[in-house]
């Protein structure tokens, strides 16, 4: 009568090794999928944020209100106070409904600043708005729009070439188009967004 055959030590070690390799590979796949999922969700939030910002700025730029004879109206932009960060300031017919004593015309300024709560942290994009009222400006309001803005750039097309700065107080009226650039931190890399907005011509 033959005795029941068992597994040798070598066979058990081989089986354990194969099992360990399979489990390690499976864990690696799940880890990669989880990391990719988190990255896609983070990127999706940043894409949505950039889309909302461009939509808001675009509507305000297309509704620019500038009259050379009215000193309170303006359109200007270029290099800001922080290196490699631009600013954009304009008077527009788009007014936030939550603005105190809001009227049909407001002055809006976009710029990047250091976070006052974390000077070593990533800079933030700030929007300031104030109403234009007869006899002076009303109380304005300021909002932090986005953190982690590594670059906010603005360029202006005069009909012939792109310019890095614009100021209606220097004459020349409004530019034909405005290019907006946003670079936002996404972990160990940055996402770049670029758009151009045309300013409608207003017949005198």
UniProtKB/TrEMBL annotation:
Superkingdom: Bacteria
Membrane topology recorded in Swiss-Prot or TrEMBL: Single-pass membrane protein
Show the stretches that span the lipid bilayer. none
> Is Magnesium found in the keyword set?
no
Q: Which InterPro entries match?
A: N_methyl_site, Pilin-like, T2SS_protein-GspJ, T2SS_protein_J
State the UniProt keywords alphabetically: Cell inner membrane, Cell membrane, Membrane, Methylation, Transmembrane, Transmembrane helix
Q: Name one Pfam family in it.
A: N_methyl
Localization of this protein: Cell inner membrane
Q: What NCBIfam families does the entry give?
A: IV_pilin_GFxxxE
The record's similarity note reads: Belongs to the GSP J family.
The record ties this protein, via PANTHER family, to:
TYPE II SECRETION SYSTEM PROTEIN J, TYPE II SECRETION SYSTEM PROTEIN J-RELATED
For this entry, the protein name equals Type II secretion system protein J
Organism lineage reads as: Bacteria, Pseudomonadati, Thermodesulfobacteriota, Desulfuromonadia, Desulfuromonadales
């Amino acid at each position: 009568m033959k005795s029941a055959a068992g597994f040798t030590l070598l066979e058990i070690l081989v089986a354990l090794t194969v099992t360990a390799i399979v489990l390690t590979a499976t864990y690696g796949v799940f880890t990669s999928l989880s990391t990719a999922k988190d990255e896609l969700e983070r990127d999706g939030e940043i894409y949505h944020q950039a889309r909302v910002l461009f939509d808001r700025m675009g509507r305000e730029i297309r509704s620019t209100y500038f009259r050379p004879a009215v000193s309170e109206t303006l359109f200007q932009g270029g290099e800001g106070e922080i290196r490699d960060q631009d600013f954009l300031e304009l008077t527009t017919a788009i007014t936030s409904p939550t603005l105190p004593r809001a009227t049909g015309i407001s002055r809006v300024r976009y710029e990047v600043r250091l976070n006052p709560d974390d000077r070593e942290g990533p800079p933030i994009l700030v929007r300031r708005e104030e109403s234009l009222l007869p006899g002076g400006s009303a109380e304005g309001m300021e909002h932090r729009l986005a953190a982690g803005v590594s670059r906010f750039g603005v360029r202006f097309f005069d009909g012939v070439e792109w310019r890095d700065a614009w100021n209606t107080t220097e004459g020349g009226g409004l530019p034909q188009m405005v290019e907006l650039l946003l670079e936002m931190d996404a972990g160990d890399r940055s996402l770049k967004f670029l758009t151009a907005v045309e300013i409608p011509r207003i017949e005198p």
